[in-house]
Amino acid sequence: MKRIAESTVRRLSIYLGFLEDAQDRGVLTTSSDDLAKLGGTTSAQVRKDLSFFGSFGKRGLGYSVPELAARVREILGLGREWRVCIVGAGNIGSALARYAGFAERGFHVSGVYDSDPVKIGSRWGAVTVQDTADLERDISAGRYDIVVLTVPSENAQEIVDRVVAAGTKAILSFAPVQLTVPGDVELRTVNMAMELEALTFALTNRPGRDKQ
Amino acid sequence: MKRIAESTVRRLSIYLGFLEDAQDRGVLTTSSDDLAKLGGTTSAQVRKDLSFFGSFGKRGLGYSVPELAARVREILGLGREWRVCIVGAGNIGSALARYAGFAERGFHVSGVYDSDPVKIGSRWGAVTVQDTADLERDISAGRYDIVVLTVPSENAQEIVDRVVAAGTKAILSFAPVQLTVPGDVELRTVNMAMELEALTFALTNRPGRDKQ
Question: Which residues in chain B are contacts of A92 at CB distance < 8 A?
């Protein structure tokens, strides 16, 4: 398989959201034009994005919605359940633990950790907040596929080092700070300010902007 | 100015984070190699990203950190304060209102709205939660530049329609649902599942992945 740019993966996620909505509405076929509109891109780009993963659709007939949805799910690795643990039982952690969009895509929050004695032992839906001191033990036991980090910035690198040493290969961080991981660990940082900056960039530089 | 891809804007945000860290540490110059490493891209891409906005740096000498930081801030529209209102005083809203990364970049949360009588009137740091019924009045009065939407999915489009009718031109939504806005309104959707999908894609498709 060719190398895939991160922007392509993002668009695949957007296409999938649209395809799942279409499935719910009973729509059976869609076109690269439809997908392009939603992904904020061109139909040529849609065809290129999908072409990385083999041949889809029939010229003039468009794509079969259930077929394409199943294939994009598979491409994104969503054909299985992913066990997620959240480290940091604060506001963002709490919001994520309840986030409806996770379960829909097969992300199962099966552990929450915090070092605050007041929070340890409290129930968060189906899970009980555990002591961060037990994190390495549980990760080493293979209990989680993905670690979501919602601790304060000043603690983030320390937790990253600990979970990586215990065997974690995928981390999603919400701490607004640069983190370092070994080359075989996948790290993504969600930066809320970055999302606002995409807006202020667009507001400041209109017209002449490109939504792609 | 040429049209700028969204992926370029994202990288500019990442470069800026690094440049500001470098400034704090007293570092005076940087190279496209350094910026590339942090942006998960190549030095050629860094030079291309920056070339959209004029000529930067001196061959062999690299970039002046304060100069480049100031220019990227200006490009991203961060040379001013942006007044943000949050609609939906739940967990995500609360986390965002306290998010340290916002103030650093000039985003000032100056209003929070909810329709729950229990929440209306409660203090969130410097702001008091107001009734969503007053949203149109305050937006029409020009009190906010950006609306951040943290309401449940089923209410999201209704609030979008209301704030757009009242004059909002920039919306950041955390509802995991497709929203429709007129062409002159900037809408960004933060989809937490999408961030996890970038991880599962990488986990599923290694090796042969591209971090760009």
Answer: 91-92, 95
pTM: 0.76
**Which of B144, B189, B194, B212 has the most A C-beta neighbours within 10 Å, making it the best mutation to test the interface with A?**
B194
Would the CB atoms of A105 and B210 count as touching at under 8 Å? no
ipTM score above 0.90? no
Q: What is the pLDDT of residues B99-158, one digit of tens each?
A: 777 887 889 999 999 999 999 999 988 899 999 999 999 999 999 999 999 998 889 999
pLDDT in tens, A178-193: 789 999 999 988 878 8
Angle in degrees, CA A126, A130, A136, rounded to 5: 120
The answer to whether A195 and B172 are in contact (CB under 8 A) is yes
| Residue contact B7–A7, C-beta within 8 A | yes
- Domains, in order of start, for chain B: 6-75 (1.10.10.10), 82-193 (3.40.50.720)
Tell me which chain B residues have a C-beta less than 8 angstroms from the C-beta of A212: 5-6
Q: Which of B208, B193, B176, B175 is nearest to A82 (CA)?
A: B193
